[in-house]
Structure formats: C-alpha cells, structure tokens
Amino acid sequence: MSVSPGVARRLVRAAVMPAPRAPIEMREYPEPPLAPGEAILETLASEVCGTDVHLWHGRLAGVPYPLIPGHVAAGRIAALAPPVADLDGRPFHEGDVVAFLDVHGTCGACWYCLVAKESTRCPYRRVYGITYGANDGLLGGWAERIHLRAGVRLLRLPEGLDPFTYVSGGCGAVTAYHAVRRGGVRLGDAVVVLGTGPVGQSAIAFASLSGAAPVLAVGAPDNRLAMARRMGADATFSIETHDAEARRKALFDLTHGRGADVVIEATGDPAAVPEGAELCRDGGVLVVAGQYTDTGETRVNPHSLINRKHLEVRGCWGSDYSHFDGAIRAMARHQGRVPWGEQVGRWFSLDEAGEALEQVAGQKLIKAGIAPAGAPVAALRG
Ligand SMILES: [Zn+2]
Ligand SMILES: [Zn+2]
Q1: Residue 21 and residue 39: Cα distance in Å, rounded?
Q2: Is the pTM higher than 0.85?
Q3: DSSP 244-274
Q4: How far is the C-alpha of 76 from the C-alpha of 146, rounded, in Å?
Q5: Distance 121 CA to ligand 2 centre (A)
Q6: pLDDT of 256-313, one tens digit each?
Q7: Which ligand neighbours the alpha carbon of 171 most closely?
Q8: Distance 318 CA to ligand 2 centre (A)
C-alpha cells in the first residue's frame, strides 16, 4: 500500500508520556504508509504495567522520550502490505485479531544471538513502547493504531482467548513464563514466589500448572494475596504481618525443613534476593526476575547463601518469542481455571491513560487496561 503525495493521511490519536514525571498528553500522528511486510493494528487492548511506572519515574536508562507507552497490546489488523505471515508461513489478513511480540530488531547475526544464544542481550534489540519513542512512529499500544514494522512477530490469538484476557495477563504473564522456565520448575517441586505483582501472580499460575507442589507466595497487601491463592498458590504469607524470620520459619515448615527447590524473585526489592537465596534448599535454584530497574545494592553472605549451599542463581532479563508464544498458548489452554482476566482491575479509555498510570503508580490497581476502541464487552470475551 502506498499513499500519493498530497493525499491527507489519517491522524491517529495517542496518549504520550512527554518526559519523566510529566502529565500524559493526547497527541495526533499521521498513519504511516506501509512498506512490504508491515501492518497497521487497530488497538483493542493495551496495558499499564510496572514498567510504565518505571518509565514515568525516569528509572530506565536510554529511553527516547516523548514516548507512546504500552509495550504489550493486541488488536485487529486494519491494513497490511504483504508478505506478513506467522511462523508456519500462513499469511495474515485484514481483520485478524493478533498479539505481537514487543521486542523487535533482534538481529540473529551478532555474537549474543549466534554464539551465546542470548537474544535478549542482542544490542540491536528494540522494544515497542519502551526503547522506541514517539518520534520513531506509532510504536506503542496507548494509541488508536500501532505501526507493526517489518519483522515484528505476530501471533493469532488462539480460539477463545480474547485480546482483553490476553492483555490482562500481558507482559507479566510472558515474563513469568520465562521465569518459571528459567527456574526449570518440574512436577512436584516446592516453589516459593516472592512478590505478588503481575509477574508474581502469573509465576504462581505457571509454577502450579507445571505441577509444582506446594506453590507458596510471599507479598502484600491482602487483596493481592487473595488473588495469589486464586492464581494457584497453596499458601500465602504477608510481608506486612510476617517479618523475614517468621516467613522463613513458616516456609521451611511447609518444605520439610529444607527450603524450596526453586525460588522466583519478582519483587523489585534488592533485599528479596538474599531472602530468596535463604529460602532455597541446598542445591536449589534462585531466579532473579524482579530487579528490572536499579533500586540499589544488597548484602549477601556468599559463603552461607551461595557457596556452601551450592545454589544456582539465574538472572531473567526480558523475553523472547518462545516465552510470548508459550505464555499465550498456556493462557488459552488454562484460562478456565486461572483468572488472568481479573489481573486488570479496570479498563480505561485512551483519554484516561494518565489516570490509569496514576492508579497503577499508587498501587490502587495491580494492573490497568487501556482499551482505545472501547472496554471489553461480553461478546468479545468469547
Ligand atoms: Zn543480535
Ligand atoms: Zn510490561
């Protein structure tokens, strides 16, 4: 598809974060002409997650403000310029309801991609709504339409998984899927999840679905702990009523006095890392998923917590297509027993994006949804 010079292009409304701490503004951008391999998505659902709060607080380096946030989104293909196909070579068509991997530009040709096979460390990796700014184009979900550049990986939402339920799990679900895989969680493992935000909630669900038993969660406040139990936690412990020693004792009592096979840290608090190490059994695995921004240092006794304990500590940074694909398929399969749709406490219009951000920043909601084309209705929930 191309547009002749002089022909007015459609203006697309977007909620823009002009700079850290600045109020969200509505701006308009011309819809771009499409080059081969590109598509325009009509946004049905996007989200406000913890990363957007970090972006607003200016806690991530190298972010090209102004920004159209919303790295995770789903929508309907409004226009495309072939070839745009899925991994099996099946072409996409206008009208298809799809999600896309927010990570774009991973080169498949650098040392990290080819030798280390750690594509999340590829220097060419860019992320919609985070490291692409508004000056790069319509590359974030807080907009009526999203420009899907050539090479962006699209996935048709499986039958029965509507875009609102997918986005309710959203990036927390994809990150949690990565963390649970990274931890190598197996049938019968005792798993402790530290943190009951969106990543922790979905980590509980995926650990439980993997056959872990028991799955134990530590977090706050009480409504998040109640949600954690609905997501699959066998028992929960509040950091507001149990101090670190009381938590350790309670969790050891439930793990034969030895500690967990796998601990998944999803808190963002540096002190949770040594606590997680302590809660692991000897020879256990600690996955550090929650330290996405630099919130400082912590003290670790390397003798007692790592060396003598023979502990494996695994960092978990970003996600790749396999985690996106796996999380979506697991959500489609298990959404009947795991209430992913409840993770978003409220759906906001595009014009309300600033309010949505404030509510998440103030921890009034675990997550907020942004629905530029209107909030979910029963018919779309399938
Ligand atoms: Zn690369
Ligand atoms: Zn996110």
Answers
A1: 32
A2: yes
A3: HHHHHHHHHHTTTTT-EEEEEE-SS-TTHHH
A4: 10
A5: 18
A6: 999 999 999 999 999 999 999 999 999 999 999 999 989 999 999 999 999 999 999 9
A7: 2
A8: 10
